[in-house]
C-alpha cells in the first residue's frame, strides 16, 4: 500500500525506538579510522567510534553513503508507489544531500521523492525527521509536511561548545579564522549554524566561558519555555554520559517539566570535527 515514507542519514540524532516506531529509513555514512572503514551504526557504534578516535593519532574521516546505496533505497521505498521525503544533514557538513539528489535523478522518480536540506544535523535534523514522520502518520499531505519542516527550520537553534580545537583545525571546517585563535590559551568556541552555514559565534577561555554558555542557553530556554517541546543535548565523551550534561538536562526540566530532553552521544561526523568534550544544545520553538 502506498504511503509517505521518511528517509534520513545516520548523522540524525534518533533513538532506535523512534526509528522503529515511525518506520524511518536510515542510510548510513561511513567512517575511516587508522585505515579501517566502518559503516556508521552498522559496523561501529557511536561509543566505539569515540573510543577509537581517542586512541588514534590521525583525524578520522567520514564519507557520504554511496549513491548506489541511496538509489537502491529509493527504489525499495517507492516500489509500491509510495512517496518519500528525504531529510539530510547540512550541505556544508557533507556531500550526502548532493548524493541523494543525484540518486533521485538516476531513479527517475523525482515525482515521488522530495529531498530536504535540514541545514543542520544531529537532533535538529532529528526534530525535522520526527515531525515529518508524525505528520505522515497523521495523514497529512506532502505539501503540508514540507511546510511544517520549513517552519521548524526557521526557529531551530544549535549551540555547540568546542573545548578542544585540535579536531576543528585538522578538519579544516573553519578555515583560517580558527587557525588564528588556536594558539590562544585554553580557548573554547561556540559554533552555530544559521541558515546552514557554520560559524564561530563566540570564543573565550576556560570553564568560565563554558558556564556562561550554559547560562545563556538556559536563559534562552526560560524565555521560550512555553514554545519549546523538545531539547537535544548531544556530546562527545569517551565513556558514560558526563554528569554535567545530566545536570544540565535536569535544569531544563526544572524550567518546564513538559519539555522532553534527550541526552545522547553525537554521530561520528560531528564527533570528528567537534572533538573530545564537545557538547551541543539543540531545540526549536513552536
UniProtKB/TrEMBL annotation:
Q: Which Gene3D superfamilies match?
A: 3.30.1180.10, 3.40.50.10170
Q: Which PROSITE patterns match?
A: DEGV (PS51482)
Record's keyword terms, sorted? Lipid-binding
Return any one Pfam family short name.
Answer: DegV
- The name this protein carries in UniProt is DegV family protein
Q: Species lineage, top-down? A: Bacteria, Bacillati, Bacillota, Bacilli, Lactobacillales
Amino acid at each position: 500500500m502506498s504511503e509517505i515514507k521518511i528517509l534520513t542519514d545516520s548523522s540524525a540524532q534518533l533513538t532506535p525506538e523512534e526509528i522503529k516506531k515511525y518506520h524511518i529509513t536510515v542510510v548510513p555514512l561511513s567512517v575511516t579510522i587508522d585505515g579501517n572503514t566502518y559503516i556508521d551504526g552498522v559496523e561501529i557504534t557511536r561509543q566505539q567510534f569515540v573510543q577509537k578516535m581517542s586512541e588514534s593519532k590521525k583525524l578520522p574521516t567520514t564519507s557520504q553513503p554511496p549513491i548506489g546505496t541511496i538509489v537502491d533505497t529509493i527504489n525499495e521505498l517507492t516500489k509500491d508507489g509510495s512517496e518519500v521525503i528525504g531529510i539530510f544533514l547540512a550541505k556544508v557538513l557533507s556531500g550526502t544531500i548532493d548524493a541523494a539528489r543525484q540518486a533521485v535523478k538516476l531513479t527517475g522518480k523525482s515525482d515521488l521523492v522530495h529531498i530536504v536540506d535540514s541545514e543542520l544535523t544531529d537532533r535538529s535534523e532529528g526534530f525535522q525527521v520526527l515531525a515529518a514522520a508524525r505528520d505522515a502518520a497523521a495523514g497529512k499531505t506532502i505539501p503540508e509536511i514540507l511546510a511544517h519542516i520549513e517552519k521548524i527550520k526557521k526557529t531551530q537553534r544549535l549551540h555547540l561548545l568546542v573545548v578542544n580545537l585540535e579536531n576543528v583545525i585538522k578538519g579544516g571546517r573553519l578555515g583560517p579564522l580558527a587557525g588564528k585563535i588556536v594558539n590562544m590559551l585554553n580557548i573554547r568556541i561556540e559554533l552555530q549554524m544559521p541558515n546552514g552555514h557554520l560559524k564561530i559565534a563566540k570564543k573565550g577561555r576556560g570553564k568560565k566561558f563554558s558556564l556562561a554558555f550554559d547560562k545563556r542557553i538556559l536563559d534562552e530556554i526560560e524565555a521560550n519555555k512555553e514554545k519549546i517541546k523538545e531539547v537535544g543535548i548531544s556530546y562527545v565523551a569517551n565513556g558514560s554520559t558526563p554528569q554535567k550534561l545530566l545536570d544540565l538536562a535536569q535544569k531544563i526540566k526544572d524550567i518546564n517539566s513538559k519539555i522532553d530532553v534527550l541526552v545522547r552521544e553525537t554521530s561520528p561526523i560531528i564527533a570528528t570535527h567537534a572533538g573530545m568534550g564537545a557538547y551541543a544544545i539543540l531545540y526549536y520553538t513552536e
